[in-house]
Structure formats: C-alpha cells, structure tokens
Amino acid sequence: MGSLSDQLHFVLFPFMAQGHLIPMVDIGRLLAQRDVIVTIVTTPQNAGRVHKSVTRAMESGHRIRLVQLQFPGKELGLPEGCENIDIVASTEDFLKFFKAANMMEEAVQKLVEKLTPRPNCIISDMCLFYTSKIASKFQIPRISFHGYCCFYLLCKHNIDSSKILESITSDSEYFTVPGLPEKVEFTKVQLPVNQDEAWKEIVEPMAEADQASYGVVINTFEELESSYVEEYRKVLSCPTGYCRSSHALPVIVGALMPYRLLSLRALLDVVEVFVPYRIW
After folding, report:
1. pTM over 0.85
2. Is 51 a catalytic residue?
3. How many CA atoms, within 13 angstroms, populate the side-chain half-sphere of residue 175?
4. Is 125 among the catalytic positions?
5. Contact, 264 vs 145, CB < 8 A?
6. Which region, left, alpha or beta, applies to residue 36 given φ > 0 means left and ψ of -120 to 50 means alpha?
7. Would you say 126 and 142 are in contact if contact means Cβ atoms under 8 Å apart?
8. Alpha carbon of 257 to those of 112, 135, 210, 270: distances in Å?
9. pLDDT of 189-237, one tens digit each?
10. Looking at 9, 62, 93, 125, which residue is catalytic?
C-alpha cells in the first residue's frame, strides 16, 4: 500500500435512492481494493443505510470513508428525515427532493477545500448536476454515474433525437421507439416524469453536466442487454468497441467522444488513467 501522497483519491457522490446508492458504494469498495483512497459523500440517513458495507471494507484495511452532510430538504418544505427518494410521498415532493439534492453545492465546496489528499477524480450521480460546478472550480475530472441501463439510455436518446413525440397527439397513443434492435412501444404517459415542463430546471442542467463529464459509468452488464449495449456504443461513436467480460457494471469512461465501454473489472484499470493528475 502506498503512502497518502502517492495514492489517488476518488470522491463519490451517490444520489439518495437505493438503486443509485448501492452500486455507487460497490464502485467505491472496488476502487478502495485497488489501493485508491475513497470518500463517499452522502447524508446522515443514507450513510446509515450503507454504514455496515463501508465499515467491512475499512476493517479489511481499505482507505474508504463516509462523509455526512446535512440534507437541505426542510428548506423546501420536505418532512423531517426525508433524505431518500423511497420516503417521498407525493409527485410535488418528488420534484422538491431533486431540487434539495442540488442545493448542497456550498457545503460540498467547503468539504472539498478541506479534503486530504486533494481529490484526483469525482464520480457523481448524474442527478447531482451541481457537482459539475465543483469539478470545474477545483479542476477535478468528473465521471457521471447513470443508475439506468443501456436500454433506457438508448430509448431516451432515440426518442429525443428523432423528435417523435412532436407527432404524437394523444397521451394514450402507442408509438414505436425508432432505431432499437427490437420493436418497443410506449405511450407518452409511460415515459419518465421528467418529460413534464416543471422538470426542465432539473433535466436541462443535468444533461449539461453529463455532457461536460470526463466520462460515464452505466449500471448494467453486457450479458443482460448485449444488443442495447452495442447500439448505445454506436450512439457514442466508439471506434474501438473496447469491452471486456463483466460480472457487474459495464462502464463508459473516456474523453466523452469517443467513449470506451468497459466492464466493472475494467473500472479498476481506470485508476491508471488518473495517474497524471497526482501532481494537482
């Protein structure tokens, strides 16, 4: 194990939802096993949900830690203790929750200023778009984490790029998603809630932060949806088709265009990418 000055330091920002929190912690543990210092930033209630998993990694000698910051939900009228999406009781509060989750910029900025050693990389859930500003301010590469699979991402990309919704006049009318390996049909009301106008202030900066990212981690594995992984690889204009056998999460990491599609095991190799940033 190297000295603190020699080790890379990754700071992880999971979104406050189990389907996002658990895989992000798994990524953190795998990085820590590769002799990377890992800091996972979350709220007190969510820290409690993953405390045992992180503690086991720490007891194994890995340099991984949880840092807790207060969730500003009360400022937007959310109930006390509403720190995870599975506690949200209404559609209105659902939007408030996303807004509150992105009101932590000032607290995180103060945290990053004090972190030692200086972070070499941020892995942030795509929902936490404010971390893009943090990454820019401190000149830290930011990788965006998608809790969705390639099927979802390909559907969303093809629906948005084709503008097919502009020709759909009824919420109950089925339409075929263009450009998929199989025939897949949806109605407008079956699409994610973020299609609503009220969500623009969340969705638009989220997309901007995603495009500004160094790369993307996707929560899937190739054997589950190989044809959609392949099609999404084409969307991302990957010239090498770089992919390895996986046991869990394929990863997209690279200079955004072109992307490289990797397995979770290959995520460990990503550590080597950040060696030049040790001088920061």
Report:
1. no
2. no
3. 23
4. yes
5. no
6. beta
7. no
8. 28, 19, 12, 16
9. 898 755 567 888 998 999 899 888 877 788 777 778 889 888 887 776 5
10. 125
